[in-house]
From TrEMBL:
This is Four helix bundle protein. It comes from Haloferula rosea. InterPro entries: 23S_rRNA-intervening_sequence, 23S_rRNA_IVS_sf. It comes from the Bacteria. Transmembrane segments: none annotated.
């Protein structure tokens, strides 16, 4: 299937849904975290679908892969921040575990897209 627009990508859609899910959780952290962990979580969550979209709009497949790598890095950063939030007792283990499962799914989807694009380059 040829994707005409990044909004058609399932990975972008899931990353958008994930960012929307994470936001209300992060804004419930203590006020002292507003400019720290809350802000970092929201920026990381926003960065994942943003980099998928930006990469899709680039001129070369190599550039696209590069931005998907940035999205993966932001996803790892987000997982780390969510784990810190759990350790700080801002979110319960059950919420943390559910969010990490969703993050892992997005990570697998990103890996699959990267692999498909790399095959395109070598063929």
């Amino acid at each position: 299937m040829i994707v005409k627009h990044y909004r058609e990508l399932k990975v972008w859609q899931k990353a958008m849904d994930f960012a929307v899910e994470v936001h209300p959780i992060a804004i419930c952290f203590p006020k002292a975290e507003m400019f720290a962990l809350t802000s970092q979580i929201n920026r990381s969550a926003t960065s994942v679908p943003s980099n998928i979209a930006e990469g899709n709009g680039r001129r070369t497949t190599g550039d696209y892969i590069h931005f998907l790598g940035i999205a993966k890095g932001s996803l790892n950063e987000l997982e780390t921040q969510l784990t810190l939030a759990c350790r700080y007792d801002y979110i319960p283990d059950s919420v943390h575990d559910s969010l990490l499962e969703k993050s892992a799914e997005i990570g697998r989807m990103l890996n699959g897209l990267i692999e498909a694009l790399e095959r395109k380059i070598t063929s």
